Amino acid sequence: MLGVVGKKSLPNIDLVIELEFAGFLDGLNVVLSIPNGIGIVIFFSGEAYVGNDQNSGDQYPKFHASLYHISLFYVFRIRYNFWVNFFLLAILLPIQAMASTVLVIGDSHTTGPFGKKLDELIRAEHKVMTRGACGTIGENWNQGTRTTCAKWNWGKDMDGQVITSTATPKLNELVDQMNPDFIILQFGGNYRGKLNSEDFSIPNDVAELIKTAKSKGAKCMFVTGPDTYVDRVLLPDTIDRVQQGVGQECTFFNSLEVTQYPDEYVGKRRPDGTKYTDGKHYSFPEGEPFAWEWAEKVFMSFTELEQSISLSSKANGLHSQE
Questions:
Q1: Tell me, what's the pLDDT at 41?
Q2: What is the pTM of this model?
Q3: CA nearest 175: which of 217, 228, 213?
């Protein structure tokens, strides 16, 4: 923090502006402390979300706006105000209309706690549709073929309505319907069974999936499957094949680097005799926090991708005007 650079005192209003540079031409924070919740707010086009004060733990609305090639962060801390909810509603609604559209598709991890948490995080800032289909790889989404575990399918449409259809959606139809700005593809674990196949190419299957995803110009992020207890020894080779298919076409997120399966629950049974876990999924109470943490890291990476693209676009726009 560079410190307080400006302060204006008015009756019942204490306005403090603080500037913080995150890096060279990277950004700055403007903090307006308004104890009585009175102030005039001028918005730039951008996005909004709820942040946390690292010192006090208080929550406050945080606004991100872009001005040419300098990314600005506006933070408004509002305390002691009984009508704060109305204030937030008034300022969040117009910003939501400018949010990016995001399509998230994936396998059984997307139907479980990982996918549900990621949907929640993205939905707070963007318009999003999430579709998860158990047991799938790229060809299932290009052909619309159903799997044997389809009863576990899960998703949410852009209005937040839950989707439990057992059919695997065709990706090209989802892209045509939504025309998203960004697509997040979460796959990997189900390719393990294809490692030794002579008539199936993992890189080709991944490449075809990405080709469909980007058919209308969407930017993409490919998220691999996480660490698992089952077939752990096969995961590095599987991820290598997947990465070959991704190439430079998508931002690549290697989930093996940020996840660790809770092995201590594998093979154990609860008092009622049921198993804690199958050793592959995080869909049990003790495993969910691991999946949530994974989702948070993916969301952070996605946010960085989005901001870098926004900055690049602004910079290109400035160059074109010179």
A1: 40
A2: 0.70
A3: 213
